[in-house]
Amino acid sequence: MKESVADLPSENSLIAASKSGDTDAFDQLIRRYEDKIFRLAKSVCSGLPSDAEDVYQETFLTAFEKIGKFRKDSNLGTWLYRIAANLCWMRHRKRKREPFVPLLDDPARAGRAAAGDVKDWTFEPDEAAQKREIKETVRKALQELPVDYRLVLSLRDIERLSNEETATVLGLSVAAVKSRLHRGRMFLRDRLDAYMSGRSA
Questions:
Q1: Using one digit for the tens of pLDDT, what is the confidence trace for 73-85?
Q2: Do 107 and 196 have their domain in common?
Q3: Of 88, 159, 79, 98, which Cα lies nearest the Cα of 125?
Q4: How many domains does the chain have?
Q5: Helices (DSSP H) in the chain: which residue ranges?
Q6: pTM for the full model?
C-alpha cells in the first residue's frame, strides 16, 4: 500500500534523527532534495559533467558531516543550496578559469536593464528540453558567464528561488542579486537573439 503524504515523516523529525546518526533518516532527506541539488550543480558546472556529479555527492557528504550544526530555525533547502554553491565556487577557483564577458560590465547596457529595457524573461527547463538546439545555445551561453552570475541565474530561473532566498544562499545583498540577474539574463537573451537571427537569415 502506497504511503500518503500525511504518513511520511516530517522534515524536522528526519533532521532530528539524522543529528542522532540515523543514516536511514538522512537518506530520506537526500531523496527530498537530490534532484534540486543535482540540477543546480549541472547548470553551474555546465560543460563539466564530472564536476556536477562530484558537487552533488560532496554536498550531501558535507551535509551529513555538518548536520549536527544545522539550526532548525533555518531552511534546510537553503542550507543545502549554500553548501552546493560554495562547492561549485571552490571548484571554479581551483580551476582558475574565469571567462571574460565585457557585456556584463557595460554601464550603458546595465542602465537600460535597470530602466526596464530588458524583458524579465525566465528560462523554462521543460520548454527548452523540447527544443534541443535552444537548450544547447543556453548551455553554451551559461558556460561563458562568470560563475557568480551563473549561480544567480541557476538559483533564480531554474530553481525558482526568490531574490531574498538567492541572496541568503550566496551571501549577497538583494540589490546585488537583482543586478547580476538582470545582466545575466541580458547576456543570455543576446545569445538567443543571435541564434534566432542566424536561423532566420
A1: 779 999 999 999 9
A2: yes
A3: 159
A4: 2
A5: 11-19, 23-44, 49-66, 76-95, 107-114, 125-129, 132-144, 147-153, 163-170, 174-200
A6: 0.74
